[in-house]
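2024-03-11 09:14:02 DEBUG pipeline.ingest accepted 1 chain
2024-03-11 09:14:02 DEBUG pipeline.ingest length=97
2024-03-11 09:14:03 DEBUG pipeline.predict start
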Amino acid sequence: MIRHLVLFKLDEGVHRDDPRVAAGEAAFRALGEQIEELRHWELGWNISERPIAYDFAINSAVEDEAALKRYLEHPAHQAGVALWREFATWVVADYPF
């Protein structure tokens, strides 16, 4: 199995109530039902007020590197990524477990 972690930081001046953010969150929430490669899918907003904290996180798992590639290339995933590019940056970690 491969764990796929993504941490998002909203751009300066962008807040959770921004309609673009709501659309991006909705697009990513739907992926768990849309992409068969996903074995685990959870996401949520950070509750920490620490200055180093990111704003939004995705914790997911796929079977192997081939499944990760299919997930990353899936049109629904690509559409969600395009939305998030408008208002956030992110970091990713993929590791076997």
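2024-03-11 09:14:41 DEBUG pipeline.report The longest helix spans residues 19-34.
2024-03-11 09:14:41 DEBUG pipeline.predict end
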